[in-house]
Amino acid sequence: MNGFISTKYRSVLASVVLMACIGCDPAEVPKSVDLPSEPESTVGLAEETSDLRDSELMSAEILASVIERYAQAKSYQDKAVLYLNYQLEGRQTQEPQRWSTVWERGGKYAGALFNGKVSANGGILSCYIFDIESENLDNQHVLMAYQNNVPFTELFSDSIAKYFLGGYSDLPLDETKIAGWPRLMPPPLTLLVPELSNQWIQGSEQSLRLADGDFDGRSCYVVRSLSDDMTADIWIDCETLIIHQMSLPLKLLVGEVVTSPEIKEVQLLAKFHDAIFDEPIAAAKFAIEDRGDAIPLGKFVALPEAIPSRIIGQAVPSFQLIGDSGGPVTSDQFRGKVTAVLWLAGLSSYSSVQDFDLLARDLSDKRFQFGVVYSDADLKELGSLEVVDELAAVSDVKNVNFYFDAAMKASKLFQMNVVPSVVVFDETMQLQFAVPVENANWERDLKAAMLRVADGENVADEMRLSYGRFIESYKKQLQAVSAQPLLDRIKGN
Q1: Is the peptide bond before 96 cis (omega within 30 degrees of 0)?
Q2: Which helix (H) or strand (E) holds 263?
Q3: How distant is the alpha carbon of residue 31 from its chain centre?
């Protein structure tokens, strides 16, 4: 997945992963309905008692009725939101994600899937991803022609579409299961589209009817469903059979989120606001937007690896850091030696400090010097140079110096595109090389580059040429999957 995956969840530290609120204004989010507690063991749900009154439906009957009702629908629409609720250091937090569905027979659909927008007007499907970090996937706009049925299977066979539309870019989901069908697809969509399915509704292995509940004044059946060793609680309108709410298994999240001592009362909860069957839907709801300069494609193309710094080959601007003692360290103090600087970026990068120290030991002659730069995010509290425990645990090294970059001022001067990374500048302060520490064999590549720079070679030109080839290859891939004829068709050309 390299080349397009956002870096925001690569470090998956709960305190970092869960701080951002994306999508809706939390102030406008309705309060959650109290849910039955999730059982500690999800294996072997108890069977319902056999002496239920005739008027009481069994859980399997309720689920079957729901499946049938959605299959009979002529249209459906909601304003669904998927909420990640948790308590962080005693403060209750709610993170909403867009998850709405608008559907009509005849192959029409409009959905907000996290930061993705999908529209299908009866003949053409449109998919656009809103992602600041990648500039909306380099403004790529996927268009697919179809007849009769919206090509969801084809769309989700695109690994990039699956990643963003399945919530992996916006929630701390367990990516080890990304190869399978997305677990987080709106249940109404899976009930309305025959080729899709929800593992806790159509694929339920066991189910249990819990006590009925109330949702916004509507009486609801509450069914607990087991599938693949995970349970979900489903709130179903007793009268209309609309799914109003569904709590999803915490096992979908990475373990660090659930087990972190700082995070409590984690809840993954979908609420299908304003859900309704068979109401007329304006054709404009399914219209495909002309996105101006967007690149029309038949499928998404993985972005080329970003060059770690945009000033490779240029003189390093004057900068200032703070040393361990608290005093200023200017860029002039690095002149005269080949210098490697590791820019940290959260917990996922801390282990690289020790690898970096080993490299410094191997290159211990007077031609070289090494530094590790950390920022405000690595401090226990602002105004103090006391680093977080995780960084302190790996900072007892002998061959590198530590520096503090307040407010990331120096990082901005280096125009860093990728962190954590290591940059190398020569004796004259020319930036010669940069490598992300997530790259395989980054220590080997860094050592080779430093030795070459010390011998007077211009590594920067070679590096810029190499990245230029990546860009050219990327452009050729875009041309190969162009969907310009479909865009012309939409515009009426």
Answers
A1: no
A2: strand 263-271
A3: 25
Going from the C-alpha of 359 to that of each of 145, 234, 315, 342, the distances in angstroms are: 53, 54, 25, 12
As a residue count, the chain comes to 493
Give pLDDT tens digits for 168-216: 999 999 888 777 778 899 999 999 999 999 999 999 999 999 999 999 9
Question: Where does the chain hold its CATH 3.40.30.10 domain(s)?
Answer: 320-474
Q: Answer for the pair 69, 59: CB distance below 8 angstroms, yes or no.
A: no
Distances (CA, A) of 189 to 104, 116, 136, 197, 212: 11, 15, 25, 8, 24
CATH of region 14-38+56-297: 2.50.20.10
Q: How far apart are CA 182 and CA 286, in angstroms?
A: 23
As annotated, the residues of the chain forming the CATH 2.50.20.10 domain(s) are 14-38+56-297
Pairing of β 101-104 and β 75-77:
antiparallel
**What are the backbone angles phi and psi of residue 155, rounded to the nearest 5°?**
-60, -45
Question: 427-468 pLDDT, tens per residue?
Answer: 999 999 999 998 889 999 999 999 999 999 999 999 999 888
Residue 343 identity (one-letter amino acid): W
**Chain-centre distance for alpha carbon 478:** 23
Q: Are strands 81-88 and 91-98 parallel, antiparallel or unpaired?
A: antiparallel
Residue in the block written with tokens 């309704």: 276
| Token pair 């590096």 in the structure block, residue | 463
- CA-nearest of 323, 321, 184, 299 to 252 is 184
Q: What is residue 414's three-state secondary structure?
A: coil
Backbone angles phi, psi at 261, to 5 degrees: -65, -20
Rounded CA separation 280/309 (Å): 53
3-state secondary structure of 143: strand
Please give the Cα distance from 136 to 235 (Å, whole number).
35
- Phi then psi for residue 2, to 5 deg, are -60, 145
| Residue 197 neighbours by CB distance under 10 Å | 16
Report the C-alpha gap between 233 and 249 in whole angstroms: 9
Domain at 320-474, CATH class: alpha beta
- CA separation for the pair 124, 367 (Å, rounded): 61
Q: Are strands 368-375 and 338-343 parallel, antiparallel or unpaired?
A: parallel
Question: Sheet containing 81-88: which strands, arranged edge to edge?
Answer: 91-98, 81-88, 263-271, 243-248, 230-237, 218-227, 206-215
Cβ–Cβ < 8 Å for 308, 491 = no
Tell me, yes or no, if the pTM score tops 0.85. no
Distance of CA 369 to the CA centre of its chain: 36
